[in-house]
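Re: [help] complex structure
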Amino acid sequence: MTARTPILTGGCQCGAVRYAVFAPLTNSALCHCRMCQKAFGGAFAALASVSLADLEWTRGHPRLFDSSDEVARGFCANCGTPLTFAYRGRDYLDVSLGSLDDPSAVAPEGQVWASSQMPWFGHLHQLPSRDGDDPGYEDTVAAVAASSHQHPDHDTANDGPDAWTPRPSRHWTGK
Ligand SMILES: [Zn+2]
Ligand SMILES: [Zn+2]
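Output below.
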């Protein structure tokens, strides 16, 4: 068997879960449904589909939460990154576009569940914006950059001396 070359790779923030995609993602969309808002902790989910045969978990596996009897949502059990959305009994699933190593590689082609779209969504381009964080946070931003535990946006070694070691999660201690 010849090793396939991935078209896209991705994974969670801590690097405990990594995947590779061997076919172009299809049906890319923003989902504004309330379940996706909750599952992503955001205003919407950005997702695209891949057949199960064209997806390979290259490090670890997601933990699954059944948000209904029909849908399982995959996330990293260590860092919580939302990774997948899967209808029960289908031969494909969706991956979260933000978890791709190149999150701009796939643009949404549509939107679903517009009825629960955030009322401000259509005004995003009108919001004041700038690069970087708020003024006064320069030292903190530099400290973040110097101490990041986020997995880089490319594959890293699973074993050996250069193996990536995910930063462990911690329990809440009140600080
Ligand atoms: Zn993780
Ligand atoms: Zn949804």
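Residues 31, 33, 35-36, 45, 113 surround zinc ion (ligand 2) (CB under 6 Å).
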